[in-house]
Design goal:
The protein is α/β, with parallel strands linked by helices and 292 residues long. The protein contains ten helices and eleven strands. 40% of the residues lie in helices and 16% in strands. The structure holds NADPH dihydro-nicotinamide-adenine-dinucleotide phosphate. The site of NADPH dihydro-nicotinamide-adenine-dinucleotide phosphate has 26 residues, from helix 10.
Length: 292
């Protein structure tokens, strides 16, 4: 029988454990703090930012929400980042992606103090991930995928993992985590120019789809018994829904589920883990800053 990997429940457990840790930190005089910065009016980004701030409130993490107008200049944004770098109440800084087009996201990230880069996007943290230096910050979504594998007792050692997608947010850090010496998978990264994607994926014991193409991965991509992690969050039109759309992953769940041994659903799989890991990274940043 196929295991449905429950990201909602797993994230609830992660948050519950963090809550205890945060209470202990507070008793020792340290309150973790997160600043979330949103530039522009993108409705999806607004929803993400609000849910991150709400998660902070529920856990007792101090939070600042900065909502800046679309016409904010690069210099103004960088100025705010420097202010937050210097704010001792703030241990984590997150600039919601994507910013408006006139903002150079990479240049902004370079201005975040790497010790407060809880998204794990600063080159120092990218290097620490590759170096397997545990003091760095790992991007939240791949970190959440690894946590799901750990909680569900899914072995990675000696397994062939195929990661579809090579973004700096998901694909590449995911591949780095899987190949690291504490996971020991053999990893292949696939992308839009990969030849015979279905054939390659059929060699995977663990398949991670981080593409952004609804239902790309169908049953013919799956080796019987493989573990499938679906990172994709895609809106598809659905007139039967009140909002006129529904959210689906990159995996065609209905056809893949009977072939694989375990799978994350969308929604309710990888998605909820992302915020949980953001909270976890913020607590880690606080502990590192306070030397506890
Ligand atoms: P990007 O667009 O940055 O990267 C997509 C990757 O998929 C690229 O490497 C691209 O290849 C590859 N790709 C595109 N089309 C194909 C194809 N037909 N066959 C093989 N590979 C292909 O996306 P992200 O990594 O940022 O996000 C991926 C998905 O994950 C999205 O649906 C996003 O919404 C979701 N996501 C979910 C999160 C969560 O919390 N669960 C968090 C972040 C993202 P190439 O490099 O050649 O262009």
């Amino acid at each position: 029988m196929t295991t449905i990997i429950d990201g909602k429940e797993t994230s609830r457990q992660v948050l519950q454990n963090l809550h205890v840790e945060i209470e202990q930190l507070k008793q020792a005089g340290h309150t973790p703090g997160l600043a979330v910065v949103l530039v522009g009016e993108d409705p999806a980004s607004r929803v993400y930012v609000n849910s991150k701030v709400r998660a902070c409130e529920e856990l007792g993490i101090y939070s600042q929400k900065w909502t800046l107008p679309t016409e904010t200049t690069q210099d103004e944004l960088v100025q705010l980042i420097h202010q937050l770098n210097a704010d001792t109440r703030i241990h984590g800084i997150l600039v919601q992606s994507p910013p408006p087009e006139h903002i150079d996201e990479q240049a902004v990230i370079l201005n975040i103090d790497p010790r407060k880069d809880v998204d794990g996007f600063h080159p120092i943290n990218v290097a620490k991930l590759v170096l397997e230096d545990p003091s760095g910050f790992v991007p939240c979504t791949p970190l959440g995928c690894m946590e799901l594998l750990r909680v569900y007792g899914i072995p990675t050692q000696g397994k062939h993992a195929v990661v579809i997608g090579r973004s700096m947010i998901v694909g590449k850090p995911m591949a780095n985590l899987l190949v690291a010496k504490n996971a020991n998978a053999t990893v292949t990264i696939a992308h839009s120019r990969t030849a015979d994607l279905p054939g390659l994926c059929r060699t995977a014991d663990i398949l991670v789809a981080a593409v952004g193409r609804p239902g790309l991965v169908t049953a013919d991509f799956i080796k019987p018994g493989a573990v499938v992690l679906d990172v994709g969050i895609n809106r598809v039109e659905d007139a039967t829904r009140p909002r006129g759309y529904r959210i689906v992953g990159d995996v065609d769940f209905a056809s893949v589920q009977p072939v694989c041994s375990a799978i994350t659903p969308v929604p309710g799989g990888v998605g909820p883990m992302t915020i949980a890991m953001l909270m976890s990274n913020t607590v880690k940043a606080c502990k590192l800053a306070c030397g506890v």
